[in-house]
Amino acid sequence: MKNNIKVTLLFILISAFSLFPQSGKPYVILVSLDGFRWDYLNRGLSPNLEFIRDNGASALSLRPTFPSKTFPNHQSIITGMYIENHGIIANTFRDEFKNELYRMGDTSAVRNSRWYLGEAFWETAERNGITTASYFWPGSEMNLEYRRPTYFENYEHNRPYEKRVEGVANWLKLPVDKRPHFITLYFDDTDTQGHRYG
Question: Which H/E stretch holds residue 134?
């Protein structure tokens, strides 16, 4: 089953550029494999990701923000800002002045836009007439409609990966005038298993 997911994901990434007419606007799919260490590709266990690396662009190294946690780093990726500027300083933290808690497992906190100080890339793109979509990217489901992508999914940890990939594929099948040109896609299993088994 995992191999089917990888093949499907690879198909989406490659076909996004070949199956759909470009009409002047490129398609960008930003995929996060949370917890995927830099050296995992060197183990020979991920041939589809190796293919993407070898036939596309890749970085020799990246430096995470501190702390190297899921939500702060994903906000830094999507805003281009350091954590002290975009507001998400940890997966869990307290605003001592308002006595409010932000915790990544708390749906109401995660959707509360007051925590997100930086402008996400999808906000900038939308303001410039580019349709965007997000499948589970941290921060994409906030409660202010004008700060969300046109299309987004509320996070469900147990949603099968096949459904996530299918959702992105369906967005790419929309009529050209409704199709998103910037899509984020988040996978958590590598991180989940890393915490579970080390």
Answer: strand 132-135
* pLDDT: which is higher, 48 or 78: 78
Contact 151, 180 (CB under 8 A): yes
Question: Rg of the chain's alpha carbons, rounded to an integer?
Answer: 17
Would you list the domain boundaries of the chain? 2-61+121-197
Tell me which of 8, 65, 70, 184 is the catalytic residue: 70
Q: How far apart are CA 37 and CA 52, in angstroms?
A: 16
Residues 86, 118: contact at Cβ < 8 Å? yes
132-135, strands of its sheet edge to edge: 28-33, 182-187, 132-135, 151-153
Q: Where does residue 41 rank: exposed (0-12), middle (13-18), buried (19+ CB within 10 A)?
A: middle
- 1-37 pLDDT per residue, tens: 454 444 444 444 544 444 455 567 889 999 999 998 8
Strand locations in 34-117, DSSP E?
92-95, 100-103
Q: Which fold has domain 2-61+121-197?
A: Alkaline Phosphatase, subunit A (3.40.720)
**Catalytic residue flag (residue 107):** no
C-alpha to C-alpha distance for 72 and 83, rounded to whole angstroms: 6
